[in-house]
């Protein structure tokens, strides 16, 4: 199989198009991030994923603006996402205006609420108490539903084209979808997803409700541990493609957006090239996580992302 540059897009429930592959930017230094975003845009990517908490919005924005200037391409050809951090949950407009300032952009295409967790505002983004425990705002005082409600006006203000959620399970999505005060449905749910965490029920639920899934940590996050999996390695050898190409192609074959992160030019260029997988291969890779689901992300709170329950404890 010969991998080719992926030009696939999906249509969001707003009618806007989103490219199937986006560059992830978590855990890259300013310089790495600038070079990664610039390389990506020069090599076929039109979709970049960042977040307030990554601390790199300025370098992401500089790379985007330099690229737009040098290429003559117009802003509307790119799809840019950033995320509302949990300690800014009560003032999303201020938070987004600050993100736009750092990005040096007039609008973004997608603003996500990063985690279904509310954190008190403090001089740091992740405040802890004297015993070292992360602080959260009690559920009854403020929760993810209040946060999402507040984000709706950002679309009306033209600061973002769309809003969505991240790290939501089915019960949390149901609460958002059933709330009478919520008029703007999330366009997507960005969650950890890879062959070791295929999240089949969540995919089904989101499909039924026209919410697009975006896969984060598609290679298993730092060090790409998913690529060591024996089944994945065997299938990639059989098809003469790299394990990373297989994992990324798998995500696209399942109808999800995928956000591989890399700061290596060669990998960035490789990661946007995919192959078409048949249904059997998709299922064979799903079997890895059906038998032994593994969550690789290590959030500083207990996220029951794939359980059929809502909970005041995250
Ligand atoms: N909404 C949320 O809560 C979250 C969102 N995200 C988003 O998703 C993105 C991707 O997830 P992330 O956790 O960063 O991890 P990924 O699964 O994308 O893996 C990144 C790791 O894989 C390596 N890698 C990249 N390409 C290849 C390749 N072709 N072959 C071998 N190794 C490779 C990278 O190294 P190198 O850079 O050296 O190439 C890095 O160590 C994030 O960057 C972020 O944008 C991530 C986590 C949570
Ligand atoms: O984007 C993120 N990557 C993470 C990895 C571990 C814990 C939290 C996060 C993020 O919010």
Automatic annotation (TrEMBL):
The organism's taxonomic lineage, starting at the top: Eukaryota, Fungi, Dikarya, Ascomycota, Saccharomycotina
Catalytic activity, EC: 1.1.1.358
InterPro entries per UniProt: AKR, Aldo/ket_reductase_CS, NAD(P)_OxRdtase_dom_sf, NADP_OxRdtase_dom
Example GO biological process: ketone metabolic process
Keywords: Oxidoreductase
Enzyme class name: oxidoreductase
Reaction catalysed by this enzyme: isatin + NADPH + H(+) = 3-hydroxyindolin-2-one + NADP(+); (R)-pantolactone + NADP(+) = 2-dehydropantolactone + NADPH + H(+)
An example Gene Ontology molecular-function term: 2-dehydropantolactone reductase (A-specific) activity
Positions of the NADP-dependent oxidoreductase domain: 21-288
Glycoprotein is among the record's keywords: no
Gene3D superfamilies per UniProt: NADP-dependent oxidoreductase domain
Site description Lowers pKa of active site Tyr, residues in chain: 83
Domain of life according to the entry: Eukaryota
The protein, known as: 2-dehydropantolactone reductase
Residues the record lists as binding substrate: 114
Residues at the active site: 54 (proton donor)
């Amino acid at each position: 199989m010969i991998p080719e540059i992926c030009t696939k897009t999906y249509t969001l429930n707003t009618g806007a198009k989103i490219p199937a592959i986006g560059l992830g930017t978590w855990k890259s230094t300013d310089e790495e991030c600038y070079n990664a975003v610039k390389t990506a845009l020069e090599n076929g990517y039109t979709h970049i994923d960042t977040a307030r908490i990554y601390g790199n919005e300025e370098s992401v924005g500089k790379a985007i603006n330099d690229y737009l200037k040098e290429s003559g391409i117009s802003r509307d050809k790119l799809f840019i996402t950033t995320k509302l951090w949990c300690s800014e949950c009560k003032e999303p407009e201020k938070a987004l205006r600050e993100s736009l300032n750092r990005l040096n952009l007039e609008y973004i295409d997608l603003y996500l609420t990063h985690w279904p967790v509310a954190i008190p505002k403090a001089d740091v983004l992740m405040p802890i108490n004297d015993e070292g425990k992360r602080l959260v705002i009690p559920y009854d005082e403020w929760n993810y539903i209040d946060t999402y409600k507040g984000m709706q006006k950002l679309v009306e203000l033209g600061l973002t084209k769309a809003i969505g959620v991240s790290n939501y399970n089915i019960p949390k999505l149901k609460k958002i979808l059933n709330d009478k005060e919520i008029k703007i449905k999330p366009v997507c749910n960005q969650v950890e997803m890879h062959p070791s965490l295929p999240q089949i029920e969540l995919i089904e639920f989101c499909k039924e409700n026209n919410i697009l899934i975006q896969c984060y940590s598609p290679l298993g996050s730092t060090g790409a541990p998913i690529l060591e999996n024996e089944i994945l390695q065997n299938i990639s050898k059989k098809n003469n493609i790299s394990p990373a190409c297989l994992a990324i192609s798998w995500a696209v074959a399942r109808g999800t957006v995928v956000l591989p992160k890399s700061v290596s030019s060669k990998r960035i260029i490789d990661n946007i090239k995919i192959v078409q997988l048949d249904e059997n291969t998709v299922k064979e890779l799903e079997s890895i996580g059906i038998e032994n689901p593994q969550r690789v992300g290590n959030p500083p709170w207990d996220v029951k992302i794939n359980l059929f329950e809502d909970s005041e404890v995250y």
